[in-house]
Amino acid sequence: MEDSLTRFRIDGKVAVITGGAGFLGVKHAEAILDAGGIPILADINEKTTRHQAADLAKKYNRDVLGVYADITTLPSVIELCDNCIEQFGKVDILINNAANDPKVKQEESGEPPWSRFEVFPEGIWNKDLSVGLTGAYLCSQIFGKEMAKRNRGVILNIASDLGIIAPDQRIYKIEGLPDDRQPVKPVTYSVVKHGLIGLTKYLATYWADKGIRVNALCPGGVYNGQPADFVNKLTSLIPMGRMAKPDEYKPAIIFLVSDASSYMTGASLIIDGGRTCW
Fold first, then answer.
1. 105 catalytic, yes or no?
2. Could you say which of 35, 166, 216, 272 has the lowest number of CB atoms within 10 Å?
3. pTM above 0.85, yes or no
4. Which helix (DSSP H) or strand (DSSP E) does residue 216 occupy?
5. 47-88 pLDDT per residue, tens
6. CATH of the domain at 21
7. How far apart are CA 219 and CA 249, in angstroms?
8. What is the DSSP string of 148-180?
9. Which of 13, 27, 185, 193 is labelled catalytic?
10. Are strands 65-68 and 38-43 parallel, antiparallel or unpaired?
């Protein structure tokens, strides 16, 4: 009988991580490496991606690939998948991590912030959904087809606590500004993250008979040097009274992409310090 801890190993399994050059993308790659897997960092920022992959390869003394990919276009996703299959012969895991998450800030011009719903630009709406939602759909479609041929695979969608609840705009509030000048979290972030949970449920049932498991991780905010005022406001909404540490989601990634979660599909794992309880 296989022991419980062995089920967390993914030795030799190939994992494609979109948005792989970003802060959490690198952390996901570290988790894959910790469990014995081979991460492929895919990102539109080719130079940074290759640099991050080289750093990880040196740190772990293991194979790490950093490649350019524009996940908003089908030909680029097909090329990415073909290259992975050509080099490794398979893709076992897809982590849909890529998303736009612009900083919330006050407009210096005195004009209403672009993020406010009343003036939110259609172009940004289209771009954010293209990266965060269409990209996940295209990658799931192309890589999922390959997984279905082999009757096994895992797709993990990186959603958010804001895929469960709406943003609390009070944490961005600046005293003394009129309501129509207050910065807010953009509508697209919530729409994308809620959409990923819907995509998760759809694909989990669609490919259940093909041995493909599909789940979502809903993380809360990670502390990464944000302003103290913002941190204080946010942590007041979290029962544990703090943001997540940078490495705190790595064990959850390993659990969700390994056989440790073999009977789990269509689910959303919420790890937010208790924020969505309130």
1. no
2. 166
3. yes
4. strand 212-219
5. 999 999 999 999 999 999 999 999 999 999 999 999 999 999
6. 3.40.50.720
7. 8
8. HHHT-EEEEEE--GGGTS---GGGG--TT--GG
9. 193
10. parallel
